[in-house]
Write a structure and sequence with these properties.
The structure is a homodimer. Chain A has about 200 residues and is mainly alpha-helical. Chain A has ten helices and two strands; from the N terminus they run αββααααααααα. The first copy, chain A, has a two-stranded antiparallel sheet. The model of chain A is unreliable at about 1-5 (pLDDT under 50). At the A-B interface, α1, α2, α3, α7 and α10 of A face α1, α2, α3, α7 and α10 of B.
């Protein structure tokens, strides 16, 4: 292949690189969840990586109409809006403006990309948020499943910090996990019960 | 679907969960590269996420025989061995035992999984390390390309910390980037020259 002429700027590549450097800021968005060793809070970039590993490892929990590779693509992108909108802890009061804030963030952040790619990434994020397609339902299950597994490993984590009851944990994470990955909920549910001392 | 009997343990799922919790330790492996805003060093988990985003965003830089989804799977797994073997900065002296240490780490870490999955993940990691297939060549290019883009954003980063010359930067990252993604090297090369003041 011929060497590109570096004096002719590749505007699409420049936009892609601006997006990738801006995305680096996700590493500074701190979540309520702590690492498994409780040493510090998790950030949204490493959380996103961990979720892609959950998807790859637990692929056999997905229904036959789920594409794990599309699930992984969704999970890579799913938290980028937090660069502008911040992370909203699941046990905190949800601000009324959260959905609107995240849509504005998606407009700006995906809008850094060349137009066709901005549209494609935005569509994947919208699909995840809507949680209606089989891929999105499974991706959402994993997003709800991973934090409790860290809380169990580190002795309470965000459950302790937010002083939540077992009922509240179950109502906030149970339905979405069970909808997309019933066996994962069956695995998790007795462990939540044991943690809360039943 | 019938509710699984929680009194009958799912041994495969238990092993997968042990692997996923162990993988959390990658978030504590600190790299030589700093974040784009220079606020701290990057860890290998968030680096892995960032690389998957590079693969998704720069997919049009891959040749027609590259499967981006396989590249992404490789990148999700590629640094897990560092949990045991540590990260070896590219500008530091490479220990003679590095390859052996990483293979021992791969045996242990992938060995936490049920056997068929351990074999599949290990094969993907071996393929990445060998850097011979089109997917692995492209994945390796991205792994070499991302750190310089952070160094350029944060004003020097590991180049400054290791007091490396421009020639050493070029020889350590250029060939592998150019092999798998020549246009990315054409984009990066004049920017390295500008940084080093040519």
């Amino acid at each position: 292949m011929a060497s590109p002429d570096v004096t002719a700027p590749d505007l699409d590549l420049d936009r892609q690189m601006a997006f990738l450097v801006e995305a680096d800021r996700l590493k500074s968005v701190v979540r309520a969840t702590k690492l498994a060793d409780a040493s510090r809070h998790e950030n949204s970039a490493e959380h996103s990586w961990h979720l892609t590993l959950y998807a790859l490892t637990l692929a056999d929990q997905a229904g036959p109409d789920v594409s794990i590779d599309r699930v992984i693509r969704m999970l890579i992108l799913h938290d980028l809006v937090e660069i502008d909108a911040g992370d909203t802890p699941i046990f905190a009061q949800q601000p009324n403006t959260q959905d609107a804030d995240e849509r504005v963030a998606a407009d700006r952040i995906f809008g850094l990309l060349p137009a066709p790619q901005a549209v494609a990434f935005r569509a994947l994020w919208d699909e995840f948020e809507a949680a209606e397609t089989p891929d999105a339902v499974f991706a959402k299950s994993l997003d709800r499943f991973q934090p409790p597994t860290l809380n169990l490993a580190n002795g309470g984590g965000s459950w302790t910090d937010y002083a939540v009851t077992e009922d509240r944990v179950r109502s906030r994470v149970g339905p979405l996990i069970e909808r997309g990955a019933p066996t994962l909920w069956a695995w998790l549910s007795p462990r939540i019960a044991a943690f809360f001392g039943r």
